[in-house]
């Protein structure tokens, strides 16, 4: 019985350790050139990059475009790496992958006049033990990406602590979360980033109405320790492309 108990305890501890494993999200935003087809980029993602990342063990790569007609057009690529080391090694593994090299030939050999984007903006986001891994939503037709900027690191620490009490409010309000984390590199620092998923904009709007009227949210916003911990909110509505894995 002692051995059985010890085995069960070990399995339980290991299971908890796996569940608590955090991820690093690489969020790329490709700013597209005017009057230039993006087919080269889409084919690269679909036929070369995403399959190669999957072979590396990276699952659920998301590809999105903005809802509406904002200019310049942008494509969002979300890559959930296992950790920062996986992120660091990913590009080297790509160029060691013969299948990738062959599939990506048209993209990798494209000249300045053929490549469909002006630049790539990249952010790295570390998940937290409170929300350690990306969750693939069901029946999602619209995604909301939110970036909360703080005026300095102390204010961001306050917002991160506040957010620990917000997960249950999002769930109650019908605003399923896809990922959440603290930005460790990129634009808008210091900041945190998260993504919500809904069937459509109406459901999202209804969810936010429930959120701001939730008694737990009203209690949080009344607490002095959490006042003034944000300086700006960036919100973008996204729709998944057909080959997106999220």
Structure description:
With 246 residues, the chain is of the alpha+beta class. The protein has 2 domains: 21-126, Alpha-Beta Plaits (2-Layer Sandwich), CATH 3.30.70.100; 128-240, Alpha-Beta Plaits (2-Layer Sandwich), CATH 3.30.70. The chain is 38% helix and 27% strand. Helix 7 (167-173) packs across helix 8 (201-212). The chain is globular and about 55 Å long. It starts with a helix and ends in a 6-residue tail after the last strand. Mean pLDDT is 92; it is low at 1-18.
Write down the CATH class of the largest domain: Alpha Beta
Low-confidence stretches: 1-18
Which value, in Å, is the CA radius of gyration? 20 Å
Strand order of the largest sheet: 1-3-2-8-5-7-6-4
* Overall residue-averaged pLDDT value: 92
Provide the CATH architecture of the largest domain: 2-Layer Sandwich
Total count of domains:
2
The strand count comes to 8
Summarize the entry for a quick read:
By secondary structure, the protein is an alpha+beta fold.
Name the features.
Dimeric_a/b-barrel, 246 residues, Alpha-Beta Plaits, alpha+beta, 38% helix, 27% strand, 2 domains, single chain, signal, NIPSNAP, 8 strands, NIPSNAP family protein, disordered N terminus, 9 helices, 8-stranded antiparallel beta barrel
Write the layout of secondary structure elements.
Layout: H1 2-19, E1 24-32, H2 39-55, E2 62-66, E3 74-81, H3 84-95, H4 98-103, H5 105-108, E4 117-126, E5 142-149, H6 153-163, H7 167-173, E6 177-185, E7 191-198, H8 201-212, H9 215-221, E8 232-240
Helix pairs in contact: 7-8
